[in-house]
Amino acid sequence: MSAVETETKAITNTKSQILENARELFAEHGYDGTSIRQLTSSLNITPAALYYHFASKNDVLEGLAARLHDSSDELLQRISTFDQSIESMREALNQYYDLLADDIQVFRLVWNDAAIQHSPIGQRLRSQARDFYAYLVGPDPSVEDRMRAAGAVGIIRLSLEQRGVDPDKHKKVIVERAFQVMTDL
Q1: What does the alpha-carbon distance between residue 23 and residue 65 come to, in Å, rounded to a whole number?
Q2: Is the predicted pLDDT of residue 53 greater than 60, yes or no?
Q3: 168, 112: one domain
Q4: Containing domain of residue 135, as a range?
């Protein structure tokens, strides 16, 4: 392995460690309750080393949420071609389940931490969630349509947030229940 490859691997590894550490600290102390010093001291790196990879604590948050944001964009692109048929609705709920199952910890951080909700990435993620909800309720939704969509999304989110739930094992039953609520079947 060349010196450049070794350095690139070390940089990538340090950046990944910072993000994983941030995930844990933000979950435990909240975004505002986590300092740069906490982010660095638990990894035995200096603040300068963190700033080499991220310009600010907000950039750490952006890096942490990037996968969820990008996956949400991809989901919204895919469902933009869907109609409001039963089959399309089921497929949208399946894809939403996969999206949340892939990064439920970050979703939980955004959902539960007011400071993250008001950050730029939090605002973008919440906008994406509203766009997904808008697909579910369709044009000119009734109160019942809104309640069904909220129930379906809630079933998926809350089921995945339960500690110890194996997302792959329970996907079929959770998505089917969300679909039943969505379609009143």
Answers
A1: 10
A2: yes
A3: yes
A4: 65-183
